[in-house]
């Protein structure tokens, strides 16, 4: 639901979210009058807060309490009411440049050091993925019909590693009663076309190709192959070693939002034993906010698909080697976190790692 707020309503929402982030206590109109120069009476603030509650941006945890932001309220706060902290971004850049020794340390040690700096300065759990293998290039690709409606995608890399995936034919091809030999010929022609365009490309590039050149006669394969190759690329490049550097857990779990033991155990299990699920989430790049040179994704509360962190916010960005994304940087904390600072530190860390890895 799109909510149009006046400047006054935006200012009061901003003050409410900011005060709740600072105190972890439900916010009343009296606190806003005393702490913020809003230029209106306490009665006006109460009326506006009541309206913000009606449209779902605030809620009362108890009938006698003040109000706290909902996930939707945080979303408007992040998207429209704040800008990332330049001061904290510079602190991250300075700390990374002065405390990390790229020429002396292993890559894993460097990323561990970066994760610790990020956790310290953000006050959140920091997450940094190990870089993916960007050197593997496609040597040969083949689409082979296994049975009616089923196709095997086989990819051979320049190091002669073989990857395969079983896929369904596009629905339109399954609905059409074509001779199996006709489909075999089509698949061979499509395979030849793809080999001529993709041979020598990095596997990471498969998700970002321009498919407009695909011959019109085989256009029905275009979107299907685009999605299939993008998913194949993600699966084949998932690291087999420890996937994510995690720092700052103990400090964050002392926050009042994590007072229930069962919730804490679920988060720790996700961080320690189910990292593949988390890895898939933080390397994904859905709709993003442009912050400086980095693309930063902010998922708030219920926007997170993983149950253990649906009361948390996850802020992430990719770092690159040249123009190719190879890993991700993120912070995880309660929805009541310093978004200005967290967005800034993630963007700054991603920019720093990109610059360092591209040298």
From TrEMBL:
The keyword Transcription regulation is annotated on this UniProt entry: yes
Residues of the Heat-inducible transcription repressor HrcA C-terminal domain: 108-343
Molecular-function annotations in GO: DNA binding
Record flagged with keyword Transcription regulation: yes
Keywords assigned by UniProt, alphabetized: Repressor, Stress response, Transcription, Transcription regulation
Family to which the UniProt record says this protein belongs: Belongs to the HrcA family.
UniProt-recorded name of the protein: Heat-inducible transcription repressor HrcA
Species for this entry: Chlorogloeopsis fritschii PCC 6912
